[in-house]
Amino acid sequence: MRIGELARRSGVSERSLRYYETQELLRAERTPGGHRDYGEWAVDRVVRIQTLYAAGLNSRKIAQLLPCMRDTDGRPSEVATPQLVDELTAERDRINRLIADLVRSRDVLDEVIDTASHGADAPAGRAVAAPTGSA
């Protein structure tokens, strides 16, 4: 498939696809006319690249990781080095910390929204007393 079709099917711009090639994350065969030609496997590869970027990995790390992952074309995956596994484990731990921080932030916002929603029920012109904390 040509670059435009890959862009359409993967939801990624042609510019991004060309960047992925320069970063050695994606490869294309060339037609006799010099056009890029991708196999069906490329759609899954691009989606995987996008997922890894969204997880906070940089292109260098993604380039190290991609050979360890199996594409739908059945290409054999390589064994990850212990160093790469350690780095990816650290990256996963970082992401887990971010998720925990976001959950805490969401919980605080839920409390504020709940409090503000109950305060909105008060008659106009009357302030809602803040909870005292003692019963």
TrEMBL record:
GO terms for molecular function: DNA binding; DNA-binding transcription factor activity. Keywords: DNA-binding. The keyword DNA-binding applies. Pfam families: MerR_1. InterPro entries: DNA-bd_dom_put_sf (IPR009061), MerR-type_HTH_dom (IPR000551), MerR_fam (IPR047057). The keyword DNA-binding applies. PANTHER family: MERR FAMILY REGULATORY PROTEIN, REDOX-CYCLING DRUG-SENSING TRANSCRIPTIONAL ACTIVATOR SOXR. This is Mercuric resistance operon regulatory protein. It comes from Streptomyces lavendulae subsp. lavendulae.
